[in-house]
Design a protein that fits this description.
Layout (H helix, E strand, L loop, with lengths): L1 E5 L4 H12 L3 E6 L6 E2 L15 E4 L11 H22 L6 E5 L10 E4 L10 H20 L2 E6 L2 E3 L5 H12 L4 E2 L5 E2 L1 E3 H11 L4 E4 L6 E2 H11 L7 E2 L1 H18 L7 H8 L2 E3 L2 H4 L18
Parallel strand pairs: 1-2, 1-4, 2-3, 4-5, 5-7, 6-15, 7-12, 8-11, 9-14
Antiparallel strand pairs: 10-13
Helix pairs in contact: 1-5, 2-3, 7-8
């Protein structure tokens, strides 16, 4: 098969490229970098795709940042929504068999909760979540119009080698001895291996539908920090009492209010680290989703 992957040179995209190539498919990457097979910044232009394509996996997008200005918010829209619209225009009349979009559980807008399913309302209010919702809608409508099977994946925290975002910050903090669990690190988070997402994509892209994909284990912060510290030959992560964390968080809130910039630690981040936020992938298990546990397979994602 001929497969087009946007964002194929990024953290997650590289897993998909390697997997689809290993299966004997001809893979083309589309991105703004010189190392992309098809160079195009889709937020600014419609890609010119001259060859036939069987499947498309849309991974490129903006994440891992909090907008600090109106311009930042517009950039989220331009990349995640306008970029998706331009990609779809470039694919019109191409007789695509299947289109897969890597969305996010952020579309639910949930700050806490357990076993959130695909039936939950999409109530995101942040720039990232809202633009993912809009992109999902564009893709779904396009799929109906073009008669293309649409698969939408909503992953939680994605685990893999050299992962960016919160996992990368957590690993760096543990290496530097600056990471602490709060209230014994009991709060749970859904996670998933990047490798599992890529491996399942070859099956899911022919089926279609919207799915949360998690490892089904929902590790606690304590469990994650424990396997990371052991893999890095560091001492067990220390615990910070909740009363102390609350005091530090209030200081961070004051910094954000005065300086109008994100503080290293705030009440918002305290809540994130002390409340459960987990998602159900039961729906995906009915079509063959059998993920590996992140905590029990640390060798797959730690250097």
């Amino acid at each position: 098969m001929k497969v087009l992957i946007t964002g194929g040179n990024g953290f997650l995209g590289s897993y998909f490229v390697n997997h689809w190539k290993a299966k004997g498919n001809e893979v083309f990457t589309l991105g703004r970098g010189d190392n992309s097979d098809l160079k195009c910044n889709i937020k600014d232009e419609i890609p010119k795709i001259n060859q036939d394509i069987d499947y498309v996996i849309h991974i490129a997008g903006k994440a891992h940042s909090i907008p600090k200005s109106k311009a930042d918010e517009e950039n989220f829209y331009n990349v995640n929504v306008k970029g998706t619209a331009n990609l779809l225009k470039g694919l019109n009349q191409k007789n695509i068999k299947g289109f897969m979009f890597i969305s996010s559980v952020a579309v639910y807008g949930a700050k806490h909760g357990s076993n959130i399913t695909e039936k939950n309302n999409l109530e995101a209010t942040d720039s990232y979540g809202k633009t993912k919702i809009e992109a999902e809608k564009l893709i779904t409508e396009w799929g109906l119009k073009e008669n293309v099977t649409i698969s939408i994946i909503r992953p939680p925290l994605i685990i893999g080698k050299n992962a960016p975002g919160n996992l990368g910050k957590m690993i760096t903090g543990i290496e530097n001895g600056r990471y602490f669990n709060i209230a014994d690190g009991k709060a749970k988070r859904s996670v998933v291996l990047a490798e599992d997402l890529a491996n399942f994509s070859t099956e899911l892209i022919t089926i279609g539908g919207v799915y949360n994909l998690t490892d089904g284990f929902d590790a606690s912060f304590n469990q994650l920090s424990d396997v990371i510290s052991k893999a890095k030959n560091k001492q067990k992560v220390k615990n910070m009492p909740l009363w102390l964390a609350k005091g530090i968080a209030k200081t961070g809130d004051l910094i954000e209010m005065i300086l109008k910039k994100e503080a290293p630690f705030s009440t918002k981040k305290l809540i994130q680290m002390t409340t459960d936020l987990t998602f159900s992938s039961k729906k995906a298990s009915t079509i063959g989703w059998k993920p590996k546990g992140v905590v029990t397979n640390v060798n797959l994602w730690m250097n």
